[in-house]
Amino acid sequence: MKSNKIIQYRRHQLARQRYQLKRSRKRYQQTRQKRIFRWLTKSDVKEIKKKDKTKTKNHVAPKNFSLINNTEKMLSYLHESRKIIKDRKPINLDISRITKMTPDSIALVISTITNPLWNHKTIVKGNAPKDIRLRKEFVESGFYNYVKSKIPVRSYENSLMHKETSKIVKPDIAGSAIDIILNKQQLNDDEIDAVYTIFIELMSNTLHHADMEKFAVSNWWLYVSNENGKTCVTFVDLGVGIFKSIHVRNYFKAIGKSLKLIKNVDYVEELLSGKIGSRIEKDNSIRGKGIPQIVKSSKLDCFKKFFIISNDVKIDLKNNIYEGLENKFRGTFFYFELCQTCNNTTNGN
């Protein structure tokens, strides 16, 4: 009994010594900080803190600047960009070192840095790629309308960069996109109808992928570009994403989803076939069958590539490949390419 009391007493002494040591270290740090700022006025201290906040963060982009070809690194880059902007720290988007890119990356970066949910007048700067061809693509896309840069702003008739904030379907914008596509592509009537239907479906789906708490709180971006004999279309829906807005009717699967025992990628087949719908059902006279309609149209020969990325899932519609992602994309991303010669080969068959 006596030995137990001695042990308890020793433990109490050690705990008290640790506490005193911790307090002395804290006092030393406070005293040291006071000595540093002793000869500084309040305005000097504010200036030091202000300089720390206004120091521009040079954010270097991945060399392969493409969401469809370098998905994880691009999502990580967008996530870090959003984090810096949310902290209201000036950022410089350093794209000077990129060696490869696809047009989707331009629309994604613009939609990220201009999103009003986290960008509260943060200073966003941007330079240009050293590669002349890539530099040309950035200039003609209108990228420098949205960042501070010495690069001159140019408008280009063979591209369209449109932001929609009213969360409604815009048939006139879909028509303008079709006109730009037809400047470079030779599509038959069925293919034109398919592309137009896809545009209407994508705009309609923004309502179904909107914020559940604030219905229809979702903006979208449409970017159409003609480069190297192909037309590339990027559509970015800034809602909560497909897999956060789906309604799982099967009771056991719904429980598995809520407990995160079943991954989002496990729902892809049911989603593409139309067995899973949105949580929000709202009639719309110009709306088709949503995702299944887009899947059906994507199988036409005029589409060279067709990707969907939403939340933590990436879907390649042309090759029926889908995979889970480590980095999440907030919203839904659609990208497809129309090849210049596909219509001729289709007619030949």
Mean pLDDT: 80
CATH superfamily label of the largest domain? Histidine kinase-like ATPase, C-terminal domain
Gyration radius from CA atoms, angstroms: 27 Å
For the biggest sheet, the summary is:
5 strands, antiparallel
Strand arrangement across the biggest beta sheet: 6-7-8-12-11
Question: Could you say which structural class the secondary elements and strand pairing correspond to?
Answer: alpha/beta
The overall strand count is 12
Strand content: 15-25%
Number of domains: 2
CATH class of the largest domain: Alpha Beta
| Global morphology | globular
Low-confidence stretches: 212-217, 279-288, 343-349
The proportion of residues forming helix, as a percent range, comes to 40-55%
Tally of helical segments: 12
Known CATH architecture of the largest domain: 2-Layer Sandwich
Give a short overview.
Helices cover 44% and strands 21% of the residues. By secondary structure, the chain is of the alpha/beta class. The longest helix is centred in the N-terminal third of the chain and has 36 residues.
Write the layout of secondary structure elements.
Layout: H1 2-37, H2 42-54, E1 57-60, E2 64-65, H3 71-86, E3 91-94, E4 100-101, H4 104-113, E5 124-126, H5 132-141, E6 159-164, H6 171-184, H7 189-208, E7 220-227, E8 230-237, H8 242-245, E9 246-247, H9 251-258, H10 268-273, E10 277-278, H11 291-298, E11 303-316, E12 321-339, H12 342-348
Parallel strand pairs: 1-3, 2-4, 3-5
Antiparallel strand pairs: 6-7, 7-8, 8-12, 9-10, 11-12
